[in-house]
Amino acid sequence: MRKTAQKLIVATLCASVLVSAPAVAAVADTYQKTCATCHDSGALNAPKKGDTAIWERLKSQKGMDALVQSTKKGMPQMPAMGLCGSCSDQDFKDLINYMAN
Question: How is domain 22-100 classified at the architecture level of CATH?
């Protein structure tokens, strides 16, 4: 019984890696096409990709839903939808989490 459970756990983890890799690649591609211009360099005071301290503070202070709404509505330094007119709320959440890491 124990070996069966271990095999099931390993199979589940392997499957999640196979599903996650394309999803991460899609997020990275969207980031490069729509967010990187400002978030790679910090242009216009954009929080930089990979600055986990700033991103965690923003997520903690505002919450993910408020960050998504801000992105959709735009900010003085960022156009509405952050240059991703086809992004869904989930896409924006994925992009924010991607930038936070």
Answer: Orthogonal Bundle (1.10)
